[in-house]
């Protein structure tokens, strides 16, 4: 890379890349490999059964916690809805608007 393509501070000029060739095509990141391994592990029939039993147990033990911590993160951000459970009602307009940051336990009765 020649000096003309960089600013006085040593930064690349707008529109100039420090890696003009980019990432080689077909290169798989470590994160992609890890997610692939996790997908293969979870897809095994015996592991699906274990996961289903654990999820059902968590739902029965703490339904509100289950909904907020398991179901809501899987929903699209623009999801809207109301959950009524006993004496509590949760209304959300997005995954980030259930409760003010840092106060989830106070708002939802979650430990």
Distance between the termini: 55 Å
For the biggest β-sheet, the strand order reads 1-2
What's the overall geometry?
A: elongated
* Helix-strand makeup class: mainly alpha
Strand content: 5-15%
The count of strands amounts to 2
Compile the SSE list and pairings.
Elements: H1 30-43, H2 45-61, H3 63-71, E1 81-85, E2 88-92, H4 104-108
Antiparallel strand pairs: 1-2
Question: Can you offer a commentary on this structure?
Answer:
The structure is a single chain. The chain is mostly helical. It has a domain at 77-111. The protein is 41% helix and 9% strand. It contains four helices and two strands. It has helices spanning 30-43, 45-61, 63-71, 104-108; strands at residues 81-85, 88-92. Strands 1-2 form a two-stranded antiparallel sheet. It is elongated, with a radius of gyration of 23 Å.
């Amino acid at each position: 890379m020649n000096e003309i393509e960089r600013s006085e501070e040593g930064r690349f000029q707008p529109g100039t890349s420090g890696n003009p060739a980019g990432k080689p095509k077909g290169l798989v990141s470590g994160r992609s490999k890890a997610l692939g391994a996790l997908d293969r592990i979870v897809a095994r029939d015996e592991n699906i059964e274990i996961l289903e039993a654990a999820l059902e147990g968590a739902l029965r033990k703490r339904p509100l916690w289950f909904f907020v911590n398991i179901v809501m993160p899987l929903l699209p951000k623009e999801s809207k809805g109301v959950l009524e459970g006993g004496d509590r009602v949760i209304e959300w307009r997005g995954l980030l608007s259930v409760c003010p940051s840092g106060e989830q336990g106070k708002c939802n009765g979650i430990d």
